[in-house]
Amino acid sequence: MRKKVLSLILIAILAMGVFAGCAKDETSKTDEPKEGGEKTSESAGKGDLKDGKYLVKLPVSDHMNYPMATMEVKDGEITSFDYNEYFAESGEAKNAENYDYEEGLEVIKNLNKQFMDKKDADSIDYDAVSGATHTKESFKEIVPALIEKAEKGEVHEPVYKDGEYEAKADKDNHGWLPEIKIVVKEGTIIGVDFKDVAVEDMEGEKVVLDEKTKEPVMEDDETPKTEPTKVKKGDIKSLENYSYLPSFDTIKELTKQIIDNDNVENLKLDGISGATNTKDTLLELATKALESAK
């Protein structure tokens, strides 16, 4: 009987020891942070962003507008951010006065606010405001590019002084005087407005446009159908008074390239055919205008 009691006591002691060991082990496991779990602010990569101002400008679209964003970092934290979309010719940011797509403007405003509130591109709710699919896609592309620059410390270095710079040709060409205005913001070219202005009243040719598509009506020989029109002094060359289409294509392509490359050097000119005089004049005036911006 005595042996039986001693055996029971021994079993109880051993059981208590095993239980205590298990409890200690469970406590240790509970205290360990789970993989992928919430991190403290100290371990969340604070300070990964290097101080400075950063800029990303995406290529000009065929619709002659493009997105650009700037972001400033101080003490490793994002202190300012601005995303907008600009018109290539005027250099103006889209706003209620020059852009009638209200939903698009609301999306731009909402995305700017969300990013400044959350400081995290992955936390943006792109369905918070409907519409403006292209804007949302551009935002998804431009923000990570900015973050990457900030992580690498690739601070934006302004190339030019902010302002508007103009140049005019010394003389007219068949009654048209070429001129250019280049707009610089944040040290980068954001607008190129080249135009020919009539210096006198004269006869012109108007391109006939299709009523539905608003595209030029072409003849059998692939030239645009035209009709005579009157040009008044001060009029700007357009399809309403000038019929040589390659001239307008050349202006559009050079405008895109100058903004995208942020200069007038190293442009891809081989793909620009026709309108040689327009090409040479635009590049000459752009170079002249930018001399004052450096």
TrEMBL record:
Region Disordered, as annotated, extends over: 26-48
Q: Which Gene3D superfamilies match?
A: 3.90.1010.20
Q: Which PROSITE patterns match?
A: PROKAR_LIPOPROTEIN
Q: Where is the signal peptide?
A: 1-20
Keywords assigned by UniProt, alphabetized:
Signal
What is the protein name for this chain? FMN-binding domain protein
The organism named in the record is Anaerosalibacter massiliensis
Q: What is the lineage of its organism?
A: Bacteria, Bacillati, Bacillota, Tissierellia, Tissierellales
